[in-house]
Design brief:
alpha/beta
Length: 268
């Protein structure tokens, strides 16, 4: 189905549910709404989750994930896909196979742990992420903990980010965004395809309520790609969006609150 002036760009998230609404498919769909695209979802897992952490997680069977994906893509179509929590090797390989058959860019957020440190990816699935999922990614968006999980590279400075990006690109994604938010000082991300290099600085806001940042950034990149932006512009726009969302993050519950996906609307 071709995109027309009357039909918004369509973006699909393949991810887990966050019952607290700050991350996962909830964050993805809020981000998509904020970008004016039509968001769709393939649920991979259900979590019991709040501001304090993840209390439980239940993975869906591969056939349920495959059926959801085919149902959406074969009828409605997509201009971009974003992946998040894929908790097992079976799900990673299932989703990688589906992405390989889809003519749309995939933004892969290789989710390994939650904001609270709860594991969201089985250790035995790491090799499947490296060999099956990353090779079909247009853009991969690991944070520094996920870089260490996938490559063994531990980043302590911006030179380390270059090494990390090179290691991630060896697995086959066309572009890598190495997120430097865990380093001291103002957060700087590195976007590169191994030839071009784009450093993306932003001010560090004094706000601990940052739940959902990774999901939000990857979804915003997917939205921008679906809207026709090239990767460098898409990532710059997405970075600006998530920086504003972090600045506007608000407290919920007794722990870490979410970023504000609707900050542009609320701020006029």
């Amino acid at each position: 189905m071709p995109k027309s002036a009357d039909v918004p760009a369509r973006v699909l998230t393949v991810a887990g549910s966050d019952s607290g609404g700050g991350a996962g498919i909830q964050a993805d769909l809020k981000t998509m709404m904020a970008h004016g695209v039509h968001g769709m979802s393939v649920l991979t897992a259900v979590t019991a989750q709040n501001s304090l952490g993840v209390q439980g997680a239940w993975e869906l069977p591969a056939e349920a994930v495959r059926a959801q994906y085919r149902s959406v893509v074969d009828d409605i179509g997509v201009q971009a896909v974003k992946t998040g929590m894929l908790s097992s090797a079976v799900l990673v390989e299932t989703v990688a196979e589906l992405l390989a058959s889809t003519d749309a860019p995939a933004v892969v957020d290789p989710v390994g742990v939650s904001k609270h440190g709860d594991p969201l990816l089985a250790a035995e699935a790491l090799d499947s992420v490296r060999t099956k999922l990353l090779p079909v990614a247009a853009v991969a968006t690991p944070n520094l903990d996920e870089v260490a999980q996938l490559t063994g590279v531990r980043v302590e400075d911006e030179a380390g980010m270059r090494r990390a990006a090179a290691a991630v690109l060896e697995f086959g994604p066309r572009w890598a965004v190495i997120k430097g938010g865990h380093l001291p000082g103002d957060p700087v991300d590195l976007l590169t395809d191994g030839t071009e290099e784009h450093w993306l600085p932003a001010p560090r806001h004094d706000n601990r309520h940052t739940h959902g940042t990774g999901c939000t950034l990857a979804s915003a990149i997917a939205c921008q790609l679906a809207l026709g932006q090239e990767v460098p512009a898409a990532v710059r726009h997405a970075k600006a969006y998530v920086t504003g969302a972090i600045m506007a993050g608000f407290p919920l519950g007794s722990g870490i609150g979410p970023v504000d996906h609707g900050w542009r609307t609320r701020n006029g």
